[in-house]
Amino acid sequence: MVAIYPGSFDPITFGHLDIIERGVKLFDHVIVAVLCNPSKNALFSQEKRIEQIKKCTMHLSSVEIDSFTGLTVEYAKQKGARVLLRGLRVLSDFEKELQMAHTNQTLWSGVETVFLATSKEYSFLSSSIVKEIAQFGGSISHLVPENVAKDILMHYS
Ligand code: ADP
């Protein structure tokens, strides 16, 4: 069974990586799909984010990294995937994610969204938090893979 893990990943954090590592234990193939959303002001280009994810998922043979634009369900159909993998941290995630899952169901009844609860050590972790800390010179080495930390430090230095 193929699962798509869609997201902005701007940048990928240990929270995302944890979902990917747990996802590969549940599904035969996991496609991490970087959403290209021109209305979101991203820190890293789509190409850079793909490169960052590739580097830190090299140890996972059943993971593919890709990007897409437009509707997630259309992309999923194209890839032959019936599962969308998403992570849940706090109550506000649940509201947003449930709305999205229901919307996707109205667009394609063949799709299922599977939610994985965050591991408790990453429940506070988001890409935005990482950028905020880095911007003010705080340490982020415990929050993102080494290659990503280097890119962020370079950006803000
Ligand atoms: P989006 O812009 O689509 O929310 P993100 O890159 O922020 O993209 O997140 C992609 C998915 O990963 C979302 O389902 C989000 O809830 C989940 N996620 C992000 N951070 C964590 C974390 N620390 N633990 C578990 N899931 C997470």
Describe what you observe in this structure:
This protein has 157 residues and is α/β, with parallel strands linked by helices. The chain is 44% helix and 20% strand. It is built from six helices and five strands; from the N terminus they run E-H-E-H-E-H-E-H-E-H-H. The protein has helices at residues 14-26, 46-56, 72-79, 91-107, 127-135, 146-156; strands at 2-7, 29-35, 63-68, 83-88, 112-117. A five-stranded parallel β-sheet has the order 3-2-1-4-5, with helices on both faces. Strand 4, helix 4 and strand 5 (112-117) form a beta-alpha-beta unit. The longest helix has 17 residues, at 91-107. The radius of gyration is 15 Å and the shape is globular.
Summarize the structure.
44% of the residues lie in helices and 20% in strands. It is of the alpha/beta class and 157 residues long. The radius of gyration is 15 Å and the shape is globular.
Tell me about the biggest sheet? 5 strands, parallel
> How far apart are the termini?
43 Å
Question: In terms of per-residue confidence, which ranges show pLDDT below 50 for 5 or more consecutive residues?
Answer: none
* Helix content percent band: 40-55%
- Would you list the SSEs in sequence order as H and E? EHEHEHEHEHH
Structural class computed from helices and strand pairing: alpha/beta
Strand order across the biggest sheet?
Answer: 3-2-1-4-5
- What is the overall pLDDT average? 96
What Rg, in angstroms, do the CA atoms define?
15 Å
- How many DSSP E strands? 5
Oligomer: single chain
Each distinct ligand: adenosine-5'-diphosphate
Helical segment count: 6
What is the strand content?
15-25%
Query: Could you say which overall geometry the principal axes of the C-alpha atoms support?
Result: globular
